User: Fold this.
Amino acid sequence: MSSLGKRRVAALKQDDLAYTARRREIIDCAALLFRSNGYAATTFKDIAAKLHTDRATIYYYFASKRDLLLDVVRDAVVSVSVSAQQISNSTDTPTIKLQNIIASLLNSYAKNYPHQFVYIQEGMAVNKEQDEQLYQLGKIYEQSLTKIIEDGMADGSFLSGKDPKVIVYGLLGALNWTNRWMVPDGRMSPEEIATTFSALFLDGLLPRADAPVRKKRR
Assistant:
């Protein structure tokens, strides 16, 4: 490890308040630039310029741009995964759980804007070789949502006979697409958007009475 790396580790271990505050400032600045310009197009020079400092300062806090990206998204991913697990393990009905997990995710998007959208935009491809914790957190969220769907199918709350994984991927695809258009102070609040999505998804998942028999054509 380089001398700079050793200083970085030492500062983190000591939990130096000034160091931690400056590090958070860099993370928040990087989140905005990753969101607006894209991860690939953003450089340490860009981040330094935005903060009116130099690249050496950024390197003092982060060894690489990849490390910075992972820290930009980590807190938001931890929060939403823990919430999903708690909702999935609660005693609520599967219908209420699904409504709650949708609301939790959309509220997290607003609360952690733009950090969590950066994860969707740039960080979801993280594998366990790149960052074991983020990889496992993503799996926890997916498993929590899958369990809600499976439990709903098992107790008759949801339409059965469909592949839960396909349903989960469809739900996540729709929810994650909000990174293209949702902003915290937009026309609709996260709660209003969550209610709309819940109605849309549940209309397709709730069991139906037998459909009327279609008349045969003569």
